[in-house]
Amino acid sequence: NKGKYEHYMQKEIHEQPESLTTTMRGRLIHGGSSKAKTVLLGGLKDHLKTIRRSRRMVFIGCGTSYNAALAARPILEELSGIPVTLEIASDLLDRQGPIYREDTVAFVSQSGETADTLNALNYALENGALCVGITNTVGSAIARKTHCGVHINAGSEIGVASTKAYTSQIVAMTMLALAIGSDSISSEARRESIVDGLVDLPSKVREVLKLDNEMKDLAKLLIAEQSLLVFGRGYNYATALEGALKVKEVALMHSEGILAGEMKHGPLALVDENLPIFVIATHDSCFSKQQSVIQQLHARKGRLIVMCSKEDAASMMNVGKYVRVIKVPHVEDCLQPVINIVPLQLLAYHLTVLRGHNVDQPRNLAKSVTTE
Ligand code: UD1
Ligand code: BG6
Q1: DSSP label at 302?
Q2: Which of 112, 130, 232, 276 has its CA 20 to 30 A from that of 106?
Q3: Residue 138 CA, closest ligand 1 atom number
Q4: Residue 365: CB within 6 Å of ligand 2?
Q5: Does the beta carbon of 138 lie inside 6 Å of ligand 1?
Q6: Ligand with the closest atom to the CA of 153
Q7: In this predicted model, what pLDDT tens digit does every residue of 99-151 receive, in sequence order?
């Protein structure tokens, strides 16, 4: 049931304040003066000790689910102190990459049925690793076969392009990071501010959704373009990849997510006065580096669309001329990807409608890919 919406993708983008609320429901311990602010993940509490003892954590997924793990990696590394590596499921299988008994391997999947992810799970089980599921579908193959896990509880997702599952996956993995790190005193203040950030997150998502009309206007400007580059780094490298994936899969426009730190190693050659470039430059520890990227793109006359924190918008205008400046609410750095993807989801949605393509069932794609 699409309710007041025309498409499932539109409905699912707009219901993110609610889906994020259900992802966190009953899992945040917050308030009550004597109690520390922390998380409780029922499915993991008996396994946290084993996870903390693991030599490495490996996160495996495909498509958007891989991007969600990429978005959560910095906070997983920071709070666990354990090396975190990422694997696209098919690539791990192609290489038969090493997985050890001492590894914790997490399988990220909305459907819980993706063939490559499921095959990678079987492979990790054979190799004796502790297998953890991050899934949206209760009773799915991945939820059943993993040793333990977290249901993201985003509600069923119908649009082939994943939107609300992505933000709920990031939040679930951030809660996983908080749970793993919960025995460390030195990171307590950091963890508490993340819990506060999680509590506020649905209202901040509601705020960023007000950019809907602005993103529709931007889509009108970009309607006839051949290509869109999306630059991000740090916490928002994943936002660049996921934003570009949305544009590519539904609007059927070539789009590429680029790690800004790699700009000089190739992508800079593409920059001219015609190609639109979306730069994510919200306020975090990478901000000054991202400002210098913007200056260098300006120097090459790039057509820039810049996403920045509301507080930085005025200073941003001093740096140069832009096609658009998209102002988003500022949240805790590790939660910023949840905010920043929303305008890009809206842009992809409007571009698709304006270009006359099928939003909910893009050409050649399936919601759940159950063959290799
Ligand atoms: C569980 C109940 C929830 C109830 C809550 C009350 C289910 C599905 N969830 O939620 O309805 O409100 O207790 O305390 O009945 N698991 C995997 N792999 C996965 C995902 C989950 O093995 O990919 C396992 C977990 O380890 C756990 C079980 O499935 O044993 C349920 O997981 P989850 O729903 O995340 O647990 P709770 O949040 O505790
Ligand atoms: C398909 C979907 O390609 O599978 C994507 O169209 C999704 O939206 C990908 O990200 C992985 O699916 P899942 O269910 O394993 O998260």
Answers
A1: -
A2: 232
A3: 8
A4: yes
A5: yes
A6: 1
A7: 999 999 999 999 999 999 999 999 999 999 999 999 999 999 999 999 999 99
